[in-house]
Amino acid sequence: MPQPALPEPLLSLLADLAEDPPTSSTVLRARLVPRLRAAIDDALAAEDARLCAERNGLACAGRICALMDAVVRTAFEAVTRHLYPLENPSRAERLAIVATGGYGRGTLAPGSDVDLLFLLPYKQTAWGESIVEAMLYVLWDLKLKVGHATRSVDECIREARADMTIRTALLETRLILGEEPLYEELTRRFDAEVIDGTAADFVEAKLKERDRRTGRTGASRYLVEPNVKDGKGGLRDLNTLFWIGKYVYRVRDPKELVAAGLFSAEEFRLFARCEEFLWRVRCHMHFVTGRAEERLTFDLQPKIAARIDYSNRVGLSQVERFMKAYFLRAKDVGDLTAIVCAALEARHAKPKPMLDRVIGSFRRAKAQRLQSGDFVIENERLTVKDASVFTRDPVNLVALYWHADRNDVAIHPDASRHATRALKLIGAEVRKDPRANKLFLEILTSKNAPESVLRRMNEAGVLGRFVPDFGRIVAMMQFNMYHHYTVDEHLIRSIGRLADLESGRLDADHPLSHKIIHTVQHRRALYVALFLHDVAKGREEDHSVAGARIARKLGPRLGLTPAEVETVAWLVEHHLLMSTVAQSRDLSDPRTIQDFAGVVQTMERLKLLLLLTVCDIGAVGPGVWTGWKGELLRTLYYETEMVLGGGASEMERPQRIRMAQERLRAELPDWSEEAFDAYAARHYPSYWLKVDLRYRIKHAEFIRAAQARGETVTVSYETDAFRGVTEFTVLSPDHPRLLAILTGACAAAGGNIVDAAIFTTADGMALDTIFVSRAFEHDEDELRRAERVARSIERALKGEVKISDLVDGRRQSRERVRVFDVVPEVIIDNSLSSRQTVLEVTGLDRPGLLYDLTTALGKLNLNIASAHIATFGEKAVDVFYVTDLTGGKVVQAARQSAIRKAVMEVLARDRAGKAKEPALARA
């Protein structure tokens, strides 16, 4: 096999070695390695620039592979000429150096492993062993990641039969140098003794391996920080397709898959476009990071987007446009996977699939009888009767998915393939067709599995064509740390959450939602509103307002009644309201509840909005829903329910206070009348109106125990697994900077504060409860952490430690690259509370932010009545209910201006470097 000429720097290196031959392995490496490393670095720098200029990732990967070939050949030439030369090698002293795996395929990223097989005729010899050892030392000294094996042909065959990973590596081999007959013997025997007759086993193993791999890296191809190599829709999926095609169809080059009938010419062009794009992204990632980075993280995304030369567009930033292109390519890889699976089944090279889920015998019998009309059941999956089904009646493009849902069967890949090819048939006439819209509405509101059916429609492209507004957000990501999925995937997952709620599968996590979901009157409106709530993302106009307008246009088309259309529009326009109020307002303030009830107006809307909010938050991503958020939403629901039902009003305050005191007295039978009266007199009226009975009991026992011990500073704690928080109750002499000390102590100990209830007693003591998000699953672990946080708080309150130093140390230990930018905002509002000024602060989250804010407010001589802490990825929204030193609202314009200036100075520290720190310690 003719070898390409070595690059001039390597030829010059070999010539210099020949003129002055090295006398030992040490001398050889000392002279060889630095110049080889310099040649590699120069070549990679040139490839980096060429990739940016030419924009061809596959070509770049091929040239890097050729560079590694040249390095291996140079090392071999140097070792065999100067250390272990052979004049007349025996039959045993033959060696072939073979590239395997991705390297064997002829593509390498800058940081990829170099996988080598040192192929021997039948057993290791001293000469062969020396050659391999010397070469490996050279390659290791070059800091290359070398995967290697030294085997005879017999050993390769034996290992390949026993191990599917080795078999896959040997499936893609390429001779770099050495004995060509030896390599040809390996390929011939591998084909005859390993591949022949084992196609079905190989296919099954590779598909199972793919499922395990994507399970580890993320089962969805729409994760916003995808793994380009191993994630679903990534390069490894394309590799798997080619491995399967090569194994089953016995082809050597991907282009041969067209002649083999696996792909059409158009589909192979799609395969090639996907491969080039993914390789381009991967090579850019390796060049930018200087290592084998495979996860397209938030900090990398803007850099790669700029290198690939995307630009900002209206509604979408540069990075969002790039990521949309990435997810569309990942979707294309999924389409190709379905095509390959269908072809393999036709050849009986893939086991028949199981149903998506177990169904009853009645449903299965019903499915098997579907043999008339345009669709049939084959191998327990729905397919078309013939290729003209969709041209004959384009409404069948929707009916296909309706039948799949009604019969609880998967859709055959062939049917999906035909549907994708017929997408242009979905025009204005089909979108207006009453039959099509009726079928779609029944799919969307189905009690079977609407999420999986909608996802199939989306991946085939049918959903975006039938609902063009949905098509605009397909593969769209939002560049933030809050949303884990693309917008379309989030909407589809939210429908799945609602279906799970309705079926009772989530009753333990959402007891209130489970209780009310079957009492709503506008079930169809709820499903449509959830499907549309984020459909207007990526537009200049507020997406809630634009989404409501879309709902009013689409609702009548789907066949909703006028009342349902208005309900959908209202829900879409206000879909963020309940979450915002619950997480960032004082729910014990009557004004909060009255204002919220004034917007909601009816119990039906309240129920619908709660259900939509629960499903929306739950579909954002793993870990976003917490029991604490559920508690806040339930509290807001029950308080609003009372107002809408004509419950307690402000006029009843004295009676409500008296009742609260009487209920507490009944729970403390061992207290004397004198002791209880003295205790009750310590609390202001706001305490009795705001605090639940269970907390009033805990507080009374806590304060009495502290008095008995003679303590003026003490902290208690307990965990709450259902709400996902740990509560810290603090008793201390009150002073203006108390909350700043508490938040700083929590920050220093790694506590992530989500809420704070703050009360002052008539005798000058502060009784504060801090709610910190749970860090550990098991109570024993969480209690140990709580002990550390409590001790940190006590030491800080007693002046044993300097809080600012502890917080600064926490900041330095968590420093990382700053990626995101959140425009800071300070809103001062006196209309949201009847007694306090509401200060809403929005900015970039970081450790110590809450400490810095409360410190600034303390210096301004503001009393903080309550604090409500919400984090949305990198965005912090902290709300403080404050008064001046006289207990009144802050109304003077100059005073408000000073507050705004001081808070903005705190937030401005984070924008200079466009910072982002994970929300691990919100305090």
UniProtKB/TrEMBL annotation:
Residues 1-369 are annotated as: Uridylyltransferase. GO terms for molecular function: [protein-PII] uridylyltransferase activity; phosphoric diester hydrolase activity. PROSITE patterns: ACT, HD. It catalyses: [protein-PII]-L-tyrosine + UTP = [protein-PII]-uridylyl-L-tyrosine + diphosphate; [protein-PII]-uridylyl-L-tyrosine + H2O = [protein-PII]-L-tyrosine + UMP + H(+). Residues 487-609 form the HD domain. Its cofactor is Mg(2+). The keyword Repressor does not apply. It comes from the Bacteria. SUPFAM superfamilies: ACT-like, Nucleotidyltransferase, Nucleotidyltransferase substrate binding subunit/domain, Poly A polymerase C-terminal region-like. Keywords: Hydrolase, Magnesium, Multifunctional enzyme, Nucleotidyltransferase, Transferase. Coiled coil: none annotated. Its EC number is 2.7.7.59, 3.1.4.-. Residues 727-804, 838-913 form the ACT domain. Belongs to the GlnD family. Has four distinct domains: an N-terminal nucleotidyltransferase (NT) domain responsible for UTase activity, a central HD domain that encodes UR activity, and two C-terminal ACT domains that seem to have a role in glutamine sensing. This is Bifunctional uridylyltransferase/uridylyl-removing enzyme. It comes from Salinarimonas ramus.
